[in-house]
Design the sequence.
């Protein structure tokens, strides 16, 4: 009996030790994965044709970023980090592009029966129009928005049946500064094109850029905020760094589970899966082929 009791006790101890060892290994694995994740984020690989010396940006603390006054003129005042991405040819992955560009003012989305065109030139040329491919036969449809068209978005799941428009104030409309999302349906043999407002996203908050991720989420960047909108019109406000209004945002694109926000001072990355922002500043003195020269005072 005594021998049997000893064996049982040793068995229990072995099971406890095995359980402790499993927990320790799991903790070590979690720490290792977090460490690898952190290491992967220390640098941001970029492609650029304007900034020929720019190949990567280093992760830094946004709290340490120094901001110039919006109206202050300096040698690098004309330079921005405008983000876009490369096309996917074959098995080539999408790559982040950072150039000294400006926002596109004409957007388009193509379907099987024609295409929508949106203009973003403030009160001088704004709104959305539908065109047939021949441009000859008129097609009736719902009234289309006259506000600035910030983006026309679609993905493969829409099967060329519809696209989504993000609009903002055109600096003239008396209804005020409202950012909205619309669903635009391409015409069929039975019906003309359709336009349905899904939601108003924000008031008094100018929309700068918008993009659509693979999970059919519409992301809208404004001067002060970031919003996530479902294709059913449900709006989620994302908590953003308090420094966002001072970054002077210019653009936004999505690659995988990340949003890349172009600004005056660098690239702000939003990790959608982890819900965190990462900051990659740019030093124009280092990335410009020839530093700008001060104007001749004489």
Sequence:
């Amino acid at each position: 009996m005594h021998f049997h009791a000893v064996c049982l006790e040793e068995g229990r101890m072995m099971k406890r030790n095995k359980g402790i060892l499993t927990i320790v290994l799991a903790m070590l694995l979690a720490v290792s994965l977090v460490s690898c994740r952190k290491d992967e984020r220390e640098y941001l690989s970029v492609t650029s044709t304007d900034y020929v010396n720019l190949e990567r940006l280093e992760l830094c603390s946004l709290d340490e970023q120094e901001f110039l006054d919006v109206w202050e003129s300096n040698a690098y005042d004309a330079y921005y980090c405008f983000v876009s991405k490369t096309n996917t040819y074959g098995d080539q992955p999408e790559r982040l592009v950072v150039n000294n560009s400006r926002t596109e003012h004409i957007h388009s989305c193509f379907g099987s029966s024609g295409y929508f065109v949106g203009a973003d030139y403030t009160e001088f040329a704004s709104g959305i129009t539908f065109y047939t491919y021949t441009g000859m036969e008129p097609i009736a449809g719902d009234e289309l928005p006259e506000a600035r068209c910030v983006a026309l978005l679609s993905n493969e799941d829409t099967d060329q049946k519809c696209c989504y428009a993000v609009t903002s104030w055109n600096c003239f409309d008396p209804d005020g500064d409202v950012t909205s999302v619309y669903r635009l349906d391409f015409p069929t043999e039975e019906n003309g094109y359709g336009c349905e407002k899904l939601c108003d996203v924000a008031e008094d908050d100018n929309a700068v850029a918008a993009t659509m991720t693979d999970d059919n989420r519409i992301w809208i960047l404004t001067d002060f905020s970031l919003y996530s909108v479902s294709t059913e019109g449900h709006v989620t406000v994302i908590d953003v760094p308090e420094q966002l209004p001072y970054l002077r945002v210019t653009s936004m694109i999505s690659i995988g589970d990340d949003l890349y926000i172009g600004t005056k001072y660098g690239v702000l990355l939003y990790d959608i899966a982890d819900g965190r922002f990462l900051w990659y500043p740019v030093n124009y003195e280092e990335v410009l082929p020839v530093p700008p020269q001060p104007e001749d005072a004489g």
The radius of gyration is 26 Å.
